[in-house]
Amino acid sequence: MTSLHIMDKNGSRLDNETMAMLQNRAISTILPTVYSLVFIISVPGNLFALWVLCFHIKPKTSSVIFMINLSITDLMLAFCLPFQIKYHINHNNWLFGKNLCSLVTVMFYSNMYSSILTMTCISLERYLGVVHPMKPVKWRKKRYAVATCLGMWAFVLLALYPLESTDLTYEVTQLNITTCFDVLKWEMLPNIPAWATFLLTLVVILFLIPFIVTVVCYIRIIRKLIQASNKYGNGQKTRSIYLAVIVLLTFIICFAPNNFILLAHVINRLFFNKSYYPAYKLTLCLSCMNNCIDPFIYYYASKEFYQKFKQVIGQQALLSDSMENRRESLFSGRTVSVRSMSSGHAEGLDAVKACLERKESVF
């Protein structure tokens, strides 16, 4: 984010803490290394996932629309990383001009928060499919998913408007460098309450509330699947529970540290003149690592994706294996476990009918 060095009207020099942060060797070494690995892994992974989602998965349910949006979001964030890599390799010296600094910064953070919101929408979809399969699904049509994605992007870009309308570069004459979004100018916002409102909006509305919703949804999904007897089939139920746990832990590990440290940093910087910025910068690595994990936990957990991957690398699956893959797919709405239909319970039959009607997965 930013060290939030707030200059007085006469333009004071940067304080010693901010200067030390800009010369921190750990940041100049760790961030480019991690960003490079994320770029190398996430770009081909998300391109492949996007290809399969767009051209090989039908019908395009609301869940698929959200996953397409998540894949696009991950790719856009990944394409910002080469600029960040070059910036940190040059010891926090930005060489690409103020316009590109603003563009890369807005893209980086808008895609990160859009990813959080999209993951929350996916968790809500799965929660309704597993915990409340009989609830009306009219609003879960494809057009509503598209509208939700567009609304998320509009809200995130509106929240980041101060970044879009401000020169985010700052010349540090003492070090002969120009920073990009590491030192913000006081005139970006009129006063401390405005700064607090802006930054707490990012933390509370764009992270904390979606974080709580996601945690609650996945906890209830896991509880429902554990309580289920034969409704989803033992193999599918076990894999669904494991995937839910992985997604939940990924959300907590990738996004929680960065945003909680941001909250502590903002409060201490604005009111106590203390900083946790080096720790915040390092936890940005965790946020970006989500780009690498998304293709595996959301897409390749689907048997359709696994099957397509085997075809791409030249392996032909047996017909029986293909049928089993489709029968147990976590995201296939066209197949339901035989155990569910043979259970004889009215609830199981109703759930099967609901799933067939929606053509969506129970997870």
From TrEMBL:
One of this protein's Pfam families, by short name?
Answer: 7tm_1
Identify the InterPro entries for this entry. Answer: GPCR_Rhodpsn, GPCR_Rhodpsn_7TM, P2Y8_rcpt, Protea_act_rcpt
Disulfide pairs here are C101-C180
Q: What membrane topology is given?
A: Multi-pass membrane protein
The cross-references to Gene3D superfamilies, in alphabetical order and at most eight, read:
Rhodopsin 7-helix transmembrane proteins
So which domain of life are we looking at? Eukaryota
Where is it found, in Gene Ontology cellular component terms? plasma membrane
The GO terms describing molecular function are: G protein-coupled purinergic nucleotide receptor activity; thrombin-activated receptor activity
Q: Can you tell me where the transmembrane regions are?
A: 34-57, 64-85, 105-124, 144-163, 194-219, 240-267
Q: Where in the cell is it found?
A: Cell membrane
According to its UniProt entry, the protein's GO biological process terms are: blood coagulation; phospholipase C-activating G protein-coupled receptor signaling pathway; positive regulation of Rho protein signal transduction; Rho protein signal transduction; Rho-activating G protein-coupled receptor signaling pathway
Cite the G-protein coupled receptors family 1 profile domain residue spans from the record: 45-298
Keywords, A to Z, come to:
Cell membrane, Disulfide bond, G-protein coupled receptor, Glycoprotein, Membrane, Receptor, Transducer, Transmembrane, Transmembrane helix
Family assignment from sequence similarity: Belongs to the G-protein coupled receptor 1 family.
The protein depicted here goes by the name P2Y receptor family member 8
Q: Which organism is it from?
A: Sphenodon punctatus (Tuatara)
State the organism's lineage: Eukaryota, Metazoa, Chordata, Craniata, Vertebrata
